[in-house]
Known about the structure:
Blueprint: E1 17-21, H1 22-36, H2 52-60, E2 65-68, H3 71-79, E3 84-90, H4 95-105, E4 110-115, H5 118-130, E5 135-140, H6 154-165, E6 169-176, H7 186-209, E7 216-219, H8 225-229, E8 236-238, H9 248-253, E9 263-274, E10 277-280, E11 297-298, E12 306-310, E13 315-318, E14 330-335, H10 338-342, E15 347-352, E16 355-361
Parallel strand pairs: 1-15, 2-3, 3-4, 4-5, 5-6, 6-7, 7-8
Antiparallel strand pairs: 1-9, 9-10, 9-14, 10-13, 11-14, 12-13, 15-16
Helix pairs in contact: 4-5
Amino acid sequence: MDSKYAIADTSQIFSPALLVYRDIVVRNLEKMIKIAGSAERLRPHCKTHKMAAVTKIELSMGIKKHKCATFAEAQMLADCGVKDIFLAYNLVGPNIQRAVKFLQTYPDVRFSVTADDELMIAELSSAISAIKGTIGVFLDVNSGMHRTGVLPGPRAAELYQQIIDALGLEPRGFHLYDGHNNQTSLEERTAAVHACWQSAAKLRDEFVGRGWPVPAIVCGGTGSFPVYAKLDDPAIELAPGTCVFHDSGYGTAFPDMDFEPAVLMLTRVISRPGINRLTCDLGNKAVASDPPKGQRAYFPDLPDAVQAIHNEEHMVLESPLADQYQPGAELYAVPKHVCPTSALHKQAYVIEGGKVVDQWDVTSRDRFLTI
């Protein structure tokens, strides 16, 4: 394992543990700003870290606009002093009244959400205008991922006009997320991202031609972030998330992205159940289980180990090196998908200079704080 991850004393770290290397987080943020060209172009997604401590570092580095996916994340950002928050999620049911409460609780925050449906827009307008408030709305544009959003065309224009005309709503542009553009080849990914952008830019130009304001287009995610960053358009806001922590999944999928894993898992061997087998305490309640079974973590010191079993509290590894590890021995693992891994932990141990220097709360791991 790389010596930069070594910890002098692990005796007080309960495993399985989430370890955050503060100096690497800062370096990753510096790289994000460099790729973007300036901190002002960034609107990073906090879903990866969910931590007030990381948000405060971002603010100190000049990153003022932020993106989130839950009200708990929005509240965490607001409590940290973020004044421009984009909740990139369509509000339905009781979440519309949560938006009302959020505006009342944080009247100095420029708050925005997404929408892609007539009824949703009408209900949001009714609720917000009832308190004589204002909420920003980004039209959610379907980039071809077909998860949410409206395809560019006549219906997109109808919805945007509805947003413009609705009481209490302020049109703030487009949300253009293209999570399906995960091509490992940078050339192929660039071509795919450009196709998404050209479609959205054409729609923007059509709307502006009608006299409609489209002040911003919140573009992409981590994989497409460097491609959008090279486009020269003042409306673009770049919304990477994962690269603040990075992980083995993105490291493999996007080798062109020069980020370092800033989060590792500390796990301990708890059994030697057979020849060439060891069992550690890195169960699927400690590391994200959305990657395929057998690919949920990378072990730098056992790179060829086969993840034979993965249950709630156990991970069984098969390796010819297993006999080198007795119960109590420690292993480090890089999660394949760090975003849902963070949410599995109440706190993270903060490492700097080879020592545990702090513990950070995973502030918005829950979907409800007080709003």
